[in-house]
Amino acid sequence: MSTFLLVVGAVVGIAYLFRHIVVKGKQCTSKARLVGKTVIVTGSNTGIGKSTAIDLAKRGARVILACRSVQRGQAALEEVKRESGSNQVVFMPLDLGSLKSVRSFAENFLKSEPRLDILINNAGIFVQGRTEDGLGMMFGVNHIGHFLLTNLLLERLKECGPSRVVSVSSAGHNFGKINFDCLNTHKALGIGTSSMEVFQFYCDSKLCNVLFTHELAKRLKGTKASCYSLHPGAINTELARNTSSVLQMLLKPMTVFFWKNTVQGSQTTLHCALQEGIEPLNGRYFSNCTVRELYAKAKDDAAAKKLWELSERLCGLA
Question: Residue 260's pLDDT is what?
Answer without folding.
Answer: 84
